[in-house]
Specification:
Shape: elongated
Largest sheet: 5 strands, parallel
Number of strands: 7
Strand content: 5-15%
CATH architecture of the largest domain: 3-Layer(aba) Sandwich
Structural class: alpha/beta
Oligomer: single chain
Number of helices: 9
CATH superfamily of the largest domain: HUPs
Strand order of the largest sheet: 5-4-1-6-7
Distance between the termini: 50 Å
Number of domains: 2
Amino acid sequence: MVYLLKFGASWILPPGIFIVAFFAVAAYCLRVKHDPKLAAAIAALTLMFYLLCTGFVAEKVMGSLESACTPPPTIDDLNVDVIIMLGGGALPDMPDVDGEGTLCSSPASRVLAAVRLQRRLHVPILLSGGQVYSDTGAEAKIAGRVLRSLGVEDKDIIVETRSINTTQNAKFSVEIMNERGLKRPLLVTSAFHMRRAVINFEQQGVEVIPYPTDYMVTHSPQFHYTKLRPQSEALMFNAMALQEMLRTFVTEVFKV
């Protein structure tokens, strides 16, 4: 009964209510306006939008990105001399436990992975990420403060604050690595973002060991009819995945 209520409610709340409305418009065009071509076009676009709003499609699309790179099977035997963690968004004026400015959910998940890896590998963490917009936080600086509050020593924290995209993350991180004689990086970023990040570092002449984190969908999905209900979260996941695929294509073809 709980699942049925969720399924039903999704059709009277956005985005489900809009899907119902547009299907109704298509039916109106067919039955009242007698315009089957327009009705078919509206129905086709609405069906496409509906599919992008389903968890069933989101698991497939996002899952294909997240499975592109896998973490190494063991950690303690890794031959690395630095952990590179890429930024992913920060809020500058939000109160935090030990200061002002907080990380968004994705980089917060990356920080958690980076700290746990650092305690196993005993190598420094290079935080890469600047202030992307005037009203966003300086990602690496805020992440550095969080690392210190979690017990990471200053000597093990390297901060790179110039980059505002993944291409610059790779470029400026490699510059710091060369200055410090670091050659074997372990790269930490969100799973859906890892493939493009690896390509960017390869274009800088550096081979990284990927350690994806911040997974958004299960990679062993089981079908349930509620995954066919329209959800704004599923639409967001699909939009993120399609945007990432486009950016990866541009990175591979145009090297930017």
